[in-house]
Amino acid sequence: MVFNSLSFMFFLPTVFFLYWFVFNKSLRLQNSLILISSYFFYGWWDWRFLSLIFLSTIVDYFIGLKIYDSSDKKGKKSYLWISILFNLSLLGFFKYFNFFIDSWIDLVGTLGYEHQSKWTLNVILPIGISFYTFQTMSYSLDIYYGKLKPTKDFISFASFVSFFPQLVAGPIEKARDLLPQFFIKREFIYKTVVDGLRQILWGFVKKILIADQCSETVNIIFNNSYNYQGSTLLLGAFLFSFQIYGDFSGYSDIAIGTARLFGFNLKKNFSYPYFSRDIGEFWRRWHISLSMWFRDYLYIPLGGSKGSKWLSIRNIFIIFLVSSFWHGANWTFIMWGLIHALLYIPLFLRGKNKRYLTTVVSENRYLPTIKELSQMVRTFFFTMIAWVFFRSESVNHAFMILSNIFSKSILNKPEIIPHITILFIIIFMIIEWFGKNSDFGISSIVFFKKKIRWGFYFILCFLIFILISEKTEFIYFQF
């Protein structure tokens, strides 16, 4: 089941009503309802893959108990490795098996040996497997590092693993942050529910009015890239930058807002990344939950930045490599990660990678300074160029597009100009700019007069209603 579907429009109110007005007397009943609803939500796509979630849940549930009960560090580490190897093997088989086989065939082919593939499999990638495997692994890791005690309440743990708002595309929640919320009595708070609905609305704006509208032109340009000149290809890269942002951050907003309807707080996953002043700030604002996961469970255990410069650079490259590989089994993603690593390393070497930890650009001003504007444009441009690899069919395809972008034809008028889509993007970015100090774009609209607020909501709902399509899935479902 996907958020932008008619079935979800019936599913969500039904679960909400049962949760607050039928099973509200018992926390265990509420958690049981969440578990059943989550399995129904995921099984709507393909019920056969429920076995994978259940298997991952069973393994890490018992591994967590074993890690905690082990009296020596060696025993704890052994059980931890069982959890890590199991989850990565599950992920590796479904997501990377064919990639490694095809890469091996390509390698031996360059050495003059012809080899026909008999080992590649026609395997369907289970939706959300990259997200829930990382979430279950965080449980074992948190117990191993002493940040969480294991639970013997299997219903609550299974609900944590399969929590439907963020099951298939995040945010990736660490066990120590989300799991304890399943043991706290939730109360119906009208203000929280209304704010959750407001964030859901903004998530649909990002998905339907921005991402889906961009995707139509992006698909035309990238699928026929050999027929277009540099200016049109640059426009395609620009629109894809907003497509992937609107699509992924839109899902996160819907997920976070939906969780709030049930009394849960999920971590913020995007924080206006296209207002970043350098690539370091961008990665603190883009897919925050994944960045924090790699920081806590990979970068810091590797030594972080405490060792020598070379050791720190090695760790940074590992993080970007693993992050890019997490996104998919294609060399285009590896190139995308490498570009970001090469952009980040100079900042690190100059000690400027943490310049903008807490400040928001133009925090107390309506407009940015010339310096801030130039920094944002530059950061967005490099990010946009890297997105070309992310969207392209192959590395060669990406280089072909970039070679045409950086040619004289970039000065020509684009052959395609989606005026309405560009207008939507401009209005969207203006709203985001004035809402950049809040959790999501339209948080601050609560301070407007009631008639203005409701008129604004009506316009957004009307546009979403006439433009929504169940055929456009979320991009990150493939990861």
Mean pLDDT: 89
Low-confidence stretches: none
Biggest sheet record? none
Work out the strand percent. Answer: under 5%
Helix fraction by DSSP (H/I, runs of at least 4): 55-70%
SSE blueprint:
Layout: H1 6-21, H2 27-46, H3 50-69, H4 73-110, H5 129-144, H6 154-162, H7 175-178, H8 190-223, H9 230-261, H10 279-285, H11 288-299, H12 309-327, H13 331-349, H14 370-391, H15 395-405, H16 419-434, H17 450-467
Description:
By secondary structure, this protein is mostly helical. Helix content is 65%, strand content 0%. The protein folds into 2 domains: 16-100 and 120-188, no CATH class; 191-277 and 356-478, no CATH class. The protein has helices at residues 6-21, 27-46, 50-69, 73-110, 129-144, 154-162, 175-178, 190-223, 230-261, 279-285, 288-299, 309-327, 331-349, 370-391, 395-405, 419-434, 450-467. Helix 8 (190-223) packs antiparallel against helix 9. The longest helix is centred in the first third of the chain and has 38 residues, at 73-110. The relative contact order is 0.11. The mean pLDDT is 89.
